[in-house]
Amino acid sequence: MRLSGFTFCRNAVRYDYPAVESIRSILPIVDEFIVNVGRCDDGTLELIRSIGDPKIRIVESVWDETLRKDGLIYSQQTNIALAHCTGDWAFYLQADEVIHEDDLSNIIAAMQRYYRVPEVKGLLFRYLHFVGDYWSTNPWFYHKAVRIIRNNGEVESCGDAVGFHFKATGQYLQSGPHEWLAPSSAQVFHYGWVKDPKTMLVKKQEQTKVYHGDAPPPSEAKLYELATFEFEDYPILKEFRGSHPAVMRARVAATQRLGPRRNRWLNWQFYREVLKRGFRG
């Protein structure tokens, strides 16, 4: 059984993505890691090269700047990397997603268990979404996503690269029969919302263009009126008391909390959001 890791990245330095930590987190279990690096001038290519691991294969690409709708450029770039994968399974991590070393054995066991069960097309991962800092998680973001797929050419990244669908039918993997998916018994640590507020604002402004082009809706247009990003849900986020992946510990140690926060159970705003969005943890 052979395993490929794959990802895409661009402007990882400018927007402070933990791309190196993401790749390193699964290097011990993959046979190869394909990194599609989009052309940019912030040193991202040099950063990926600096990892210096022979398992890494870099593919360079140029983004189609005219593809500014619904984040489709993200799945396109993901599929460029996927096309170079040679493993029986392909393990996708975005540049802000990291796997805990304690979960690697569970992931290997899940792949071995379902390797000869052809009905299983992908493995599901649970998610921890960190927002603002490394001690705060948002339980209202999506809870599960497919991150390992059977690499037989049937499945590809779709939409804004959160999930996968069948090439032939467009059927979304996570909305199909339950036998298509199996649990990985592992979780993804998602750090995309942990940034300096000014860096976060510039990143969100670029993402708005990727999703909406030069005519963003009013809800997104307000981003261009701000001087710094506002983490509006921060007062009611869930406290994280577990351990971060070892590859992230230097980053965690070098930062501080975004700000003080009361226990969310003593904050009336938390109950207001529960009534609106439900209790998700």
In short:
The protein has 281 residues and is an alpha/beta fold. Helix content is 25%, strand content 25%.
What can you see in these coordinates?
The protein is an alpha/beta fold. 25% of the residues lie in helices and 25% in strands. The chain has 8 helices and 12 strands. The protein has helices spanning 19-26, 44-49, 72-82, 104-114, 197-212, 218-221, 249-253, 268-277, and strands at residues 3-9, 32-38, 56-61, 89-92, 97-99, 122-131, 136-137, 144-150, 155-158, 163-166, 181-193, 238-239. The strands form 3 sheets. Strands 3-2-1-4-8-6-11-5 form an 8-stranded mixed beta sheet. It starts with a strand and ends with a helix. The mean pLDDT is 94.
What are the key terms here?
281 residues, alpha/beta, 8-stranded mixed beta sheet, 25% helix
Structural class: alpha/beta
Query: What's the overall geometry?
Result: globular
Query: Beta fraction of the residues?
Result: 15-25%
Major sheet size, sense and barrel closure: 8 strands, mixed
Number of strands: 12
How confident is the prediction overall: mean pLDDT?
94
Rg is 19 Å
- Helices and strands, in order, run as EHEHEHEEHEEEEEEHHEHH
Indicate the percent of residues in helices: 25-40%
pLDDT below 50 for ≥5 consecutive residues: which ranges?
none
Helices, by number, come to 8
| Span between termini | 36 Å
Strand order in the sheet with the most strands? 3-2-1-4-8-6-11-5
List the helices and strands and how they pair.
Blueprint: E1 3-9, H1 19-26, E2 32-38, H2 44-49, E3 56-61, H3 72-82, E4 89-92, E5 97-99, H4 104-114, E6 122-131, E7 136-137, E8 144-150, E9 155-158, E10 163-166, E11 181-193, H5 197-212, H6 218-221, E12 238-239, H7 249-253, H8 268-277
Parallel strand pairs: 1-2, 1-4, 2-3, 6-11
Antiparallel strand pairs: 4-8, 5-11, 6-8, 7-12, 9-10
